């Protein structure tokens, strides 16, 4: 294993999704990892613990997931690109501090290698039932970014993208993968480090005495300064003004929350990535993400063989949800088929955007394995009627 | 010259030595008359002046509660975080920039109840942090509920018939978890508290200072112990200073003697010392210390 001077393992590798997440993070410049062991995400932490002392980074195994995410937020304030990784129960434990990262506007990445739930559920088997938790799991109103890789290659690519988005928008970004992708071993191509495009948080350039941590000067993302540079700034999880000082009233709440939402909502075109296949002329579109897309691909090709005009829309970005695209498609096709390893989460968004203009058929699965492609095929046939 | 003019004259250009360390634009603060947290902050500010460290490199991290508001009033890089998570937040901050001096300033409920697990693990790892724990024996921000340090028999809003839970002995907990510096003072011992904070600021490793403070609005009122001044008088009459005391014997009983002093001051490699020493030894020249962004292979 030989990395270049930036810690990037350029070349063709045979990696599982979890290892690819760690490599993607290192390639993105992540040099701080805090985590707590939990199946099926542990291999990401293991890979970090092995690699990071060789590339000038910091690894700490915290006492729990509450501590892991708190340490990541602290590290990000010191200027580090930082991440943690977890699965279901640990994701639940992280929720409060994810809200803190949103409120303090701290760039960081949280990977969730999803397993079956609720509770301890199925530690070693897949699920996709934390998708709504990613959107709504922390209390209060906010927008979030969540990406869903469907292969080890995408685990690598999208971890880099997650860091880039986190840095650009000063937000926590979720990488929502699952046990299948996390433990799936495939070829992963890691490019030369100078071919990897990286975004860095915009740093404040003005006079020190005029710095205000949340002053955006009309923009949506305030420039960043890290701790220890003499700005002597304050930040809080309380509703705050541009100085970062707590202001407990409705006006400040409106201004603050509105900007936190707008930061994402007004940049959906920059954030959202979709992969569309054979959509032109399709009567049925299968909307899927993560491992379910790969199972759906089999059903789609079978359906096309049977003469059904079916296309695929894969949500590479799950949050923010591609409302406009779904709304437009809804007016053009008979209906959507939504396979997901849960009993109906993303399908609710599809139904909301469709607003009755097209059929929406959920192909649910409680988790523990992936769908049988035949179940998706049946739904496609039903939808095409 | 009338009195008003005389006062005006005296006020001109008079700068309080603490002004440089406090966010004067946030004063008045939220603490009640007679509260002891302000005295702990005074001691901290005086210690910063004494300790001769670059204030640009000092970060203060607080959790939630009355003492959790300290971060908001100090003119330093300051972080008001979530309930119980000040220590892991501070751990991330310190490890990601080892040049920072990171101080955690929070209350007994925040650090020892909801944050108790982080407290013992940061002490075990000997993360280089200064922990100042203001102990007012109850959850004051939420209206005076009992907590992990409430003495037996004390009445709180959730122990209306008196507390029957055994409280933590914080210096003992800190020492047995691995802290390298452990001291306890009441906020009446302002100079000694300042001295301890100064020592802790110049100490490498997990330092713990317990500052016993009056809460006249809730704890003392509910227990009919009088106002802040009465509590200060109680501390004056009932504190005993025993440096180097066995921490297993410094429990605090309800309105009983408070043993104060510097209990522990020992040397031990910090988390970063151990990490650097161990990984250099095992990995040799393949080890790249944090911040060095090149792999030698």
- The quaternary organization reads as heterodimer
Helix/strand class of chain B: alpha/beta
**Secondary-structure content class of chain A:** alpha/beta
Count the domains of chain B: 2
CATH superfamily of the largest domain in chain A, by name, is Thiamin diphosphate (ThDP)-binding fold, Pyr/PP domains
What ranges of chain B have pLDDT less than 50 throughout 5 or more consecutive residues?
293-297
Helix content of chain A: 25-40%
Principal-axes shape call of chain B? globular
Tell me what the structure shows.
- Chain A has 385 residues and is α/β, with parallel strands linked by helices.
- Chain A is 37% helix and 21% strand.
- Chain A has helices at residues 17-27, 42-51, 65-77, 88-104, 131-136, 152-169, 179-183, 250-265, 268-271, 291-305, 323-330, 346-354, 373-384; strands at residues 11-16, 32-35, 58-61, 82-86, 108-116, 122-126, 145-147, 172-178, 185-190, 234-236, 274-277, 284-288, 310-315, 317-319, 335-339, 359-363.
- The longest helix of chain A is centred in the middle third of the chain and has 18 residues, at 152-169.
- Chain A is globular.
- The mean pLDDT of chain A is 97.
- Chain B folds into two domains: 32-266, Thiamin diphosphate (ThDP)-binding fold, Pyr/PP domains (Rossmann fold), CATH 3.40.50.970; 268-297, no CATH class.
- Chain B is 35% helix and 15% strand.
- Chain B is built from ten helices and eight strands.
- Chain B has an eight-stranded mixed sheet with strand order 2-1-3-4-6-5-8-7, sandwiched between helices.
- In chain B, strand 5 (181-186), helix 7 and strand 6 form a beta-alpha-beta unit.
- The relative contact order of chain B is 0.13.
- At the A-B interface, helix 3, helix 4 and strand 10 of A face strand 2, helix 3, helix 5 and helix 10 of B.
